[in-house]
Model the fold of this input.
Amino acid sequence: MRRVIPIFLMVFVDMLGLTVVLPLLHLYAAVHGAGPLEVGLVLAAFPLAQLIGVPMMGALSDRYGRRPLLLISQVTTCISFIMLGLANSLALIIVSRLFDGLFGANIATAQAALSDITDASNRARGLGITGAAFGLGFIFGPAIAILSFELSDSLAAPAFTAALYSFLSILITTYMFKETHPPERRRGAASSGINPVTLFRYLARPFVGFLLLLMFAQQFIFFGFESLLGLFTLTRLGFLGAGNAALFLFVGIILVIVQMRAIGPWSSRFGEGRLVMAALFLLALGLLLAGATPEQPHPFYVRELVARDLVAQAPTRTQALIGDLRVQLPANGNNGSAGLLWLALALVPISVGAALIRPALNSLITQSVGESEYGSALGLSSALVSAANAGAPILAGLAFQVFGAGMPFISGGLLMGVLCILSAGFLRRSNALDSE
Done:
C-alpha cells in the first residue's frame, strides 16, 4: 500500500484547496452584484464543465498515463484559483470555475490511479484511505478558509491559499507519484460520461434504472440546497465567510464520522435498501427544518458592518454603494442565537442522510449488475450526479430569487419526501428491503 500514500496526499491537498473556496463562492459572486440566480450560475459552472472535462480527461489518462494528466489537471486548477483571486467581474469568476471544471479532473484521475494499483482483495482498503483523505480535507479546508479570510479580510486570500495547495499537489505528483498505468496497458477508452445508448440500456432494466434515476433526483434536490446554503445563511443569519466555513466544518465532521464509523455496521445490520430509505427520510426532514429557519441574525450582527465588508471586497471600491448589493441582508434589532441553533439542528439529519445516500445507492447498483458492468454502471451513476450538480444551482437560485430564501429548501424537502415514499414501494416490491 505504499503507492497509495502519494494518492492519499494528492486527494487530501486537492480537497483542502477546493474546500477553502467552496464555503465562500457565493460571496465572490455577491460582491460583483450577483443576485441569487447569478450565484446559482457561478456554482453550476464547475459541474457543468465537468460533464465534458471528466470523461475527456479520463479517456486521455487511459491513453497517455495518469501522471501527465494529473499534472495538467493540477496546474489548471492552480491557475483557476489564481484567476478567481484576481477576478474583477462576475464573468471572470464564472470563467475561472469553467476552466477548473473542464481540465481539473484531479480527483477522478487519482481514483483511476488507485484502481490501477489495487485488486479485489485490497481495493476496499485503498478506497477507504482515499475516502479518509477526502473527508479530512472537508474538515480542515473550511477551518483554513476561516483563518485566511479573518486574517486578511479579503476574498482574494482564500483563493490564493487554495492555489498554494494546488501548487503543493503539483509537487507531490512531480516528486512522489510513480506512473500506475504503464504503456503496455494503455489504449483508447470510451467516454465515461452520459452515453445515451448506455443510459437507455440501464433504464430498460427496471430496478437498476430506478436506482439511477433516484441517484439523479436526490442529488439534484440536495445540491440545490448545498449550493445556496451560504447565500441562505447570509440572508437569514447575517453570516459572512467565517460563519459559513464553520457550518461546513460542522457538516464535514458529521460526514466523516458516519462514513468512516457508522455506514459499514449499519449496512451489515439493516441492508442498503433500508439505508436508502433512512437517508431520504433524514434529508427530507432536514431540508424542511432548514427552510423554516427563522430570520434572526447572530448576536454580533450589525447590518451596516456586514454591508460595508461586502462592499469592501468589490474591485471598484470607491464607486461601490451599499445600495448596489442585490442580496437582501437581515435587519438590525432581532439578534439572537435561535436561528443559528435551529439551522445547526437541521444540518444534523441532512449531513447523516447525505453521508448514507450515495454509498448505499451505488452499493445497490453494483449488486444489481454483473461484475463486468461495475465500471459502466458506476460511471453512469457518477455522470448523473455531475448532471444534477450542473442544473440544480440554477433552478434553486431562480426559486430563491422569485419565491424567497426558504423556498428551494422547503420544496426540496417535500420532493425528497415524495422520493422516500416512491422508493419504499419500489424497493419493497423488489425485495431490496429484506433483512440480510
